[in-house]
C-alpha cells in the first residue's frame, strides 16, 4: 500500500478506531458565531454559514463490544475542537466539508448498563455556504445525510477478562467473545479508558459497523480472533502464555516500526 493510500484510507492507519455518530439540526446565534470565527481567517456572518451538531459517541457498550470511560470522552471533548469534517473517512482536502467549532459533554441522570451516569459527546459543526455544497446542506437538512463516524486513537484499552491494556500489548481475548470465568461465561468488553488523538469526523452512509469477523487493531497490528477457543487445561494454558509472550514481542516491534514509518511519511510531506 502506498503512502498516499495510507493517509486517505483510515482502515490502514496504524491504531485508528472509528465509532458511529449521529447528526442533528443546530440553530446559530451570536455566541455560536463568535466561536466559529475563532477558526476563520475572515469574519463570517450568520448568512454565510450553515451549522449542525452531532452526537459523536457515548459511554454505552457498543456493537463492537467497546465502551468509553467518561475520562476518554473528556479527552475527546478537548481534542475534537477545530478538527475537520470530511466525507467517507477520505483524508483528502477535496473531501473536507465542515469544521468542528465547539464540543460539549452532556451528562444524564439515567445510568448505562454498567451503572454509570450516561454521557454523550456532542460536536457543533459549521459549513460555509457555497454553490458547490448547496446539495449537501439540503441533504443534511432533509435527513438524508444524518449518519457519521469519528476517527481517533486510544492510548489505553482495557480487557474486562484479564485487565491487559491492549493499547500497549495484546492479550488473547477479543471484544464480543465469551470466555469462562469464575461464576460462569462472561462476554469480553474492551474499555477505551483514555484517548491520545482525534483525527476527524466523517459523514458516512453506514457508520462503524461490526465486522463479519472479530478482530482488534489498537497498536497498529490487526489480529483476527481464532474460530474456536482451546480447551481450558493447564498444559494448553502454559502453551498460550508462551505464545502470548512471543506475539506481544512481535506486536511491540511492529508498533515501533509503524510509528517510525508514520513519522517519516509526515516528515516527507
Entry summary:
By secondary structure, the chain is of the alpha+beta class.
Notes on the protein architecture:
This protein is of the alpha+beta class and 269 residues long. The chain has a domain at 3-153 and 196-206. It is built from 5 helices and 12 strands. The chain has a 7-stranded mixed barrel with strand order 1-2-6-5-4-10-7. It has a two-stranded antiparallel ribbon with strand order 8-9. It is elongated, with a radius of gyration of 21 Å. The model is unreliable at 1-8, 209-213, 230-243 and 259-269 (pLDDT under 50).
Structural class: alpha+beta
Instruction: Tell me the helix content.
Output: 10-25%
Q: If you compute it from the alpha carbons, what radius of gyration comes out, rounded to the nearest whole angstrom? A: 21 Å
Low-confidence stretches: 1-8, 209-213, 230-243, 259-269
> Helical element count?
5
Question: How are the strands of the largest sheet arranged?
Answer: 1-2-6-5-4-10-7
Total beta-strand segments: 12
User: What is the arithmetic mean of pLDDT?
Assistant: 79
Mind describing the biggest β-sheet?
7 strands, mixed, barrel
Euclidean distance between termini CA atoms = 17 Å
Strand content: 25-35%
- Secondary-structure element order, as H and E? HEHEEHEEEHEEEEEEH
Amino acid at each position: 500500500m502506498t503512502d498516499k493510500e495510507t493517509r486517505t484510507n483510515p482502515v490502514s492507519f496504524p491504531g485508528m478506531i472509528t465509532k458511529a455518530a449521529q447528526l442533528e439540526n443546530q440553530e446559530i446565534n451570536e455566541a455560536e458565531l463568535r466561536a466559529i470565527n475563532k477558526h476563520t481567517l475572515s469574519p463570517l456572518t450568520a448568512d454565510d454559514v450553515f451549522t449542525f451538531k452531532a452526537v459523536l459517541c457515548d459511554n454505552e457498550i457498543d456493537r463492537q463490544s467497546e465502551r468509553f470511560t467518561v475520562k476518554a470522552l473528556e479527552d475527546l471533548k478537548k481534542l475534537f475542537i477545530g478538527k475537520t469534517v470530511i466525507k467517507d473517512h477520505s483524508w483528502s482536502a477535496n473531501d473536507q466539508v465542515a469544521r468542528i467549532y465547539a464540543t460539549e459533554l452532556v451528562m444524564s441522570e439515567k445510568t448505562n448498563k454498567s451503572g454509570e451516569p450516561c454521557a454523550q459527546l456532542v460536536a457543533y459543526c459549521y459549513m460555509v455556504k457555497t454553490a458547490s455544497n448547496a446539495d449537501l446542506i439540503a441533504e443534511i437538512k432533509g435527513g438524508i445525510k444524518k449518519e457519521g463516524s469519528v476517527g481517533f486513537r486510544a492510548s489505553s484499552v482495557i480487557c474486562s477478562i484479564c485487565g491487559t491494556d491492549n493499547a500497549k500489548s495484546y492479550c488473547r481475548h477479543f471484544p464480543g467473545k465469551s470466555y469462562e470465568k469464575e461464576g460462569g461465561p462472561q462476554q469480553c468488553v474492551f474499555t477505551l479508558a483514555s484517548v491520545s488523538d482525534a483525527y476527524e469526523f466523517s459523514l458516512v452512509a453506514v457508520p462503524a459497523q461490526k465486522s463479519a469477523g472479530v478482530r482488534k487493531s489498537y497498536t497498529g497490528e490487526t489480529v483476527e480472533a481464532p474460530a474456536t477457543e482451546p480447551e481450558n487445561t493447564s498444559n494448553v494454558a502454559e502453551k498460550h502464555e508462551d505464545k502470548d509472550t512471543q506475539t506481544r514481542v512481535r506486536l511491540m516491534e511492529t508498533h515501533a516500526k509503524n510509528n517510525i514509518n508514520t513519522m517519516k511519511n509526515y516528515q516527507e510531506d
